[in-house]
Amino acid sequence: MTRRETAPRAAVQKEGRALWIEETGRCALRQEELPAACEDEVVVRTLYSGISRGTESLVFAGRVPESEYERMRAPHQAGQFPFPVKYGYAAVGVVEEGPEHLVGKTVFCLHPHQDRFRMPVSAAHPLAAGLSPQRAVLAANMETALNITWDADVQPGDRVAVFGAGVIGLLVAYLASRIIGTEVVISDIEPERAGPAEALGLRFSSAGHLPHDCDVLINASASADALATALDHAGIEARIVEASWYGEKHVEIPLGGAFHAKRLSIVSSQVASLPPGRRARWDNRRRMGKALQLLADDRLDHLISGETPFETIAADYAGIIGSAATLCHRIKY
């Protein structure tokens, strides 16, 4: 076969089931026909997908601002904000149909929660050797954490404080701690988050015991109070990265006190765009490939806080999203 020829399709099902958010606080499984076959596409049978609690909770609650409807569209999303919408971006599955070199391979895809789907070959990312499909649901989160770390410009020896020990905060702290000589601390108002942090070899602290004069401070908590604390603990000319997305929520930032005297910088980070210093050499595919490589550490399994079968996810989704104990929740197909 040539590169563009595909393996036989006779045995591949032409329908799939997907999780749709129907209205605020309610979702359902819908049966849908797969699009007609096109050249250079694959059909993927899903093994696992991951619920990204922070973003998905805003979508589930209908709190995506109208101004952000287009920018907030997930790859291969169906429907329109606010509802009904098929949303999600962390699926791992086996290629059932497509180019011969990919059939039977396990791939990661930025796709909503769905048991079988068709997508372009270019959007299917083969898993790195030795990476389990169970852990690979963290790939989108690791990609985001990598982008935040780049935006933060963490350097060897830096004193780094990360606020919010959810999946993104833990992964950012994990990456920063692997830069030689860094002193990294992660903080969260939930004391039970100390367990996953310590499992990753991270120092966990309450807000009242954070070091002062930090070089880099990263807020991944979606809390304005945490951002204010970051300002208080920043050293002169320190860099503060706001990695949270607040949806429709308005926040206040205390820019009095020593903010100007310290010449502090507050910058945003968003995974939709590569940092300016990377754009000449990196693209999204290279970044995702690196994110998959960075998942090789077995300790990252501590970021999976639970697993639910796809058959019951419509009924269980609200409880998963609403639980403060949820990190990355895995759906098993």
From TrEMBL:
InterPro entries in the cross-refs: GroES-like_sf, NAD(P)-bd_dom_sf
Give a GO molecular function annotation for the protein.
Answer: metal ion binding
Keyword Oxidoreductase tagged = yes
Keyword annotations:
Metal-binding, Oxidoreductase, Zinc
Give yes or no: UniProt keyword Hydrolase: no
User: Which cofactors must be present for this protein to function?
Assistant: Zn(2+)
User: What SUPFAM superfamilies does the annotation carry?
Assistant: GroES-like, NAD(P)-binding Rossmann-fold domains
Query: Which family, according to the similarity comment?
Result: Belongs to the zinc-containing alcohol dehydrogenase family.
Q: Which PANTHER family match?
A: D-GULOSIDE 3-DEHYDROGENASE, NAD-DEPENDENT ALCOHOL DEHYDROGENASE
Its protein name is Putative dehydrogenase
